[in-house]
Design brief:
Rossmann fold, Tumour Suppressor Smad4, 2 domains, 13-stranded mixed beta sheet, 9 helices, 13 strands
Amino acid sequence: MTMEKTEMIEIILNPNGACGQAGKVWDRIEPQFVHSQKPYRVHISHGEDDIPHLASTLSNQPCDIVVVGGDGSFNQAVNGIVDYEHVRMGLIPAGSGNDLVRGLGVDHDPSVLAETILKGNTVRKMDVGEVVYYDRCHETRREPVQQDGFVHHRFVISAGIGFDGQICHDAETSRYKKILNQIHMGRLIYLLTAIHTITSTERTRAWIKVDGKTMSYDRLLLCVVMNHPYEGGGFMFCPSADGNDGILDGCIANGLSQYDFFRIFPYALKGNHLKFQGVHPFSAHEVEITTEKPLWVHTDGETACCSNHIAVRLLKKKIQMLL
């Protein structure tokens, strides 16, 4: 059931996000909201950690929530939503990756997206994924434990364990990310980090269960599970991924040497890497991943911990999107 249009637009903004880019983007588009004469309220976040609380408070009643920020900020808002059936969401991108709008195939221009959002139409319903952490260590962010005794974290773009999780963690803590964001080249941080990280990344044994069928891998580099085609600032790891088809697409990289990586990785920009030996695509409703040692896990490019046992699946509810 599609919710009725709401009167108030709730804006979640971290003005310091993406090294101040989010605040600059909002300054640029706010006149459009003023001119529309539609009522709106701006809720200032002081970091991604308080966005779930803001989204939770706002979504206790029917509302439209628009996030001005990056994919990570949108992810945090999604994790705070109380009832997807009575909430519609929009995103004005201001991050370094911006893979969600890229995957949706919409214009990246904040002004164009603002106009679309202000029309107030439910454009699409989007799948939401979830990672269940059966084990957590090296936590950089504490998250609430659910009734089953485990931490659950939602995602809309992708979740991954291994090399891509390590890249996300290293990129987030890199001193170069701020510099690149300031010169509007933030997406390069993922490529530069990948080149640096591949030289030190250890491969490990892993057991991956895809819809009940388990396969073992002796030198796992990564396993990524995707709801949209792009991650890491434009790399098309799962070109067939569709955020509305009720299916997760994935990619496993096993047994790849450093030479293999440098040979194959450029092909991922256009999704042409799946033809190479050692790269294994799959589709599934649920994936369970067990590794011999804990590895970094990311959800929509954000890392909170390492784990050696996770499950990845889709929720039954979908997000109603304003773009």
